Amino acid sequence: MWQYIVKRVIGLIPLILVVSFVIFMFIHLIPGDPARLIAGKEATIEEVQEIRVSLGLDKPIIEQYFVYLKDLLTGDLGYSIQSGAPVSELIGERIMPTLGLTFISIIWALVVGILIGVVSAVFRNKWPDHLGMVVAVSGISLPNFWVGLVLIQLFSVQLGWLPTGGADDWKSYLMPSFALGAGIMAMIARFMRSSLMETMKQDYIRTGRAKGLGGNAIVFGHALKNSLIPVVTIAGLQFGFLLGGSVVVETVFSFPGLGRLLIDSIQFRDYPVVQAEILLFSLQFILVNLLVDIVYSFLNPKIRYQ
Amino acid sequence: MNQLLQVKNLKTGFRKENGMQNVVHGISFHVNKGEIVGIVGESGCGKSVTSLSIMRLLHDTPGEIVDGSVMFKGEDLTALSERQMKKYRGNELSMIFQEPMTSLNPVLKIGRQLRETIQLHLNMSKKEAHQHAISMLKSVGIPRAEDVMNDYPHQLSGGMRQRVMIAIAISCNPSLLIADEPTTALDVTIQAQILSVLKDVQKQNEMGILMITHDLGVVAEVCDRVVVMYAGRIVESATVEELFAAPKHPYTKGLIASVPKIGQGINRLYSIPGTVPSPSNMPTGCKFAPRCSQVMEICKIKEPELIQMKEHDCRCWLYQEKEQEVEHIEKGSSARG
Ligand SMILES: Nc1ncnc2c1ncn2[C@@H]1O[C@H](COP(=O)(O)OP(=O)(O)OP(=O)(O)O)[C@@H](O)[C@H]1O
Ligand code: SF4
Ligand SMILES: [Mg+2]
C-alpha cells in the first residue's frame, strides 16, 4: 500500500512540471504588458523598460521560466502588482478559509449523497426513491449562485439568523458550503443509486442470498463497498468543479477566500497572483486525483495487488 | 421418511408486459437422502429457474412460483415466509453456481466470505468460525488453507474459487446441495477434480445433491438418478444405468448420441438438429416435435403425458396408447365437422 502511494507521488513530479510550464506560457501569451501596468499610464518608455529589466521580463521566455521555477521551489511566488505584497502572503491569508469551505462542502455532499443514493436504491420506485431523486435533480439543476442568493434572502435578510458574508465564525461557513456542495451531493446521490442497483444484480449478491443473508447484510456487507468504486471516481471529478464553483460562491457570499482573490487579481491583471492561484488550483486537482486513486485502491483489492 | 426433497407440479414464470410467461411447466421429481440426482437439458430449458425456485431466490428477478410445492424434510418451502426461508438457505439447503469467477465478492477476503455463513447459522465465535472455515477449505482440497483465508478471489484460479464456493456451501453441513452447472465454466481436468471433490464431500456428509448440468458426461460420472428436461417439462427420468442402457425419449437418445466418445472423430459428433423453441413460440403438441426424427401426426396435435413405466418415466407418444388417442381426436373432429 505505502509502496503504491510513494510510487504514485513520484509519478506526479513530471506532471506538475508540465502543468507549471503550460500555466507560465499561457499567462505570458495574454495581451497586456505587466511592466506598463506597474509603471502606470504616465510613465516614459525608459521607465517601463527599467521595470521590465528589473523583473527579468527582457530575458528569453525559457530562461524566465527557469527563474520562475527556481523561485517557486524556494517558496518565492513574486510580488503582487496591485498591492506590492508578496504573493505567498496574499495566498497564505486566503487559503485556510477556502480549504475549510471546500472540505466542509465535499464532506457533507459525500455523506448525504451516499445516504440518499443508498436509500433510493434500496427502496427503488417507492416514495423514498422518488423523494431522493427529486432532491438530486434539484441539486443538479439549480445553479449555486442562485441557491446562494435564495439562502441569503431567507436566512440573513428575512430571518436574520446567519451572516450574509465573511468568514468570521462557523456560522458564516454554513450557507456557502451548502450552496457549494448541493450540486455535488446531487451528482453523488444519482451515481450511488445506479451503482448500487447495478451491484445488486451481480452474481455474488445472489451468492449472499443463497447463504441466507438478509437485506441489510447484503447491502451493507456486500454491495456498498463494490458500488462505491465508481462513485469515488465521480466524486473526484466533481471536486474539480467544486474548485471552480468556489469562485462563484465566494463572490456571492463575499467570502474572503482564494476564489475572490482570483477574481480581483484577474480584473487588475495582477499576473503573479493569477499565475500562483492557477498553479495552486491545478495542484489541488492533481492531489485530489491522487487521493481518489488511493481510496480506489483501498476499495478495490485488484488494484492494490498489481 | 426417505424423501429429502420432493418437488410437486412446480410451475414458475416470469412477468412480461403481456402477463405471466411460464418457463417451468409443472415438473415433479424427488431427491432421496444421500442421493445425487441430475437434471439435464439444453440451455434455456429451465434448469436454473427450477433450482432458484427451490431456493426461493427469484425475488431479484421478475420470476415467481406460480403453482406447486417444494417439500423439503416435510416442510413446504413455497409456503414459508422470507424470514423462515433465510434460516434454510446456506444451512440445511445450500447452493453453488455456474460462474466461480463472479460468484464470490471481489472486494472481500475469502475468510470473511466463509466465516459469514458459519457465524450466521452455527452460533460460533469469530475464532471458532475461523478454525471451522480453515477445516472446510482443507476438506475441499485447498492447499495452504490458512493463507487462502487472507486472499481475495482474484488471487485464486477458477477451480480454486469453485472449491471455495463448495466449502462455503457445505460449511453448515447441509442435507441438500443444489449445484447449478458447477463445472461448466471450468476446463476439463479441473472439472474432473471438482466432481470428485463433490463426490467426496457428499459421501462424508451423507448429503443429497441436485446436480444441474447440460453435460451427460457429468451425469454418468456422479449421479444416481437423472431427470431430463426439455422446454420446461420433464421428458424422461430414470436411474443413470437405465437411462444410458435403454434411453426411451428421442430427445434423450439425441443427447446421448451427442456426447463425444473416445476414438470418435470430432467431425462425426452428432448434434440434435434445430434449436430449443422459445417460450413465446411453443409448438402445440409435443414440444420436441419440430426436431424429432420419429415425429408422428399426433405429436403435432397433442402433447403426450409423462407416463410411468417401472421407475422409468417418459413423455413420448412412441410409448403410449396412441391409437386410442388418435381415435378419440378423430371422433372429436368428425363430430365437429
Ligand atoms: N431473469 C429472467 N427474466 C426473464 N426470463 C428469464 C430470466 N431468467 C431466465 N429466464 C427465462 O427462463 C427460461 C429458462 O432459463 P434457465 O436459466 O432456467 O435455463 P437453463 O436451463 O438454466 O439454461 P442454461 O443451461 O443456459 O443455464 C429461459 O427461456 C429464459 O429466457
Ligand atoms: S412425442 Fe412424437 S415428436 Fe415428441 S418425442 Fe415422441 S415421437 Fe418425437
Ligand atoms: Mg442455467
Automatic annotation (TrEMBL), chain A:
CDD domains membership: TM_PBP2
Domain spans labelled ABC transmembrane type-1: 95-292
Keywords: Cell membrane, Membrane, Transmembrane, Transmembrane helix, Transport
Location of this chain's protein in the cell: Cell membrane
SUPFAM superfamilies for the chain: MetI-like
Matches recorded under PROSITE patterns: ABC_TM1
Its job: Part of the ABC transporter complex GsiABCD involved in glutathione import. Probably responsible for the translocation of the substrate across the membrane.
Protein known as: Glutathione transport system permease protein GsiC
Species this protein is from: Virgibacillus halodenitrificans
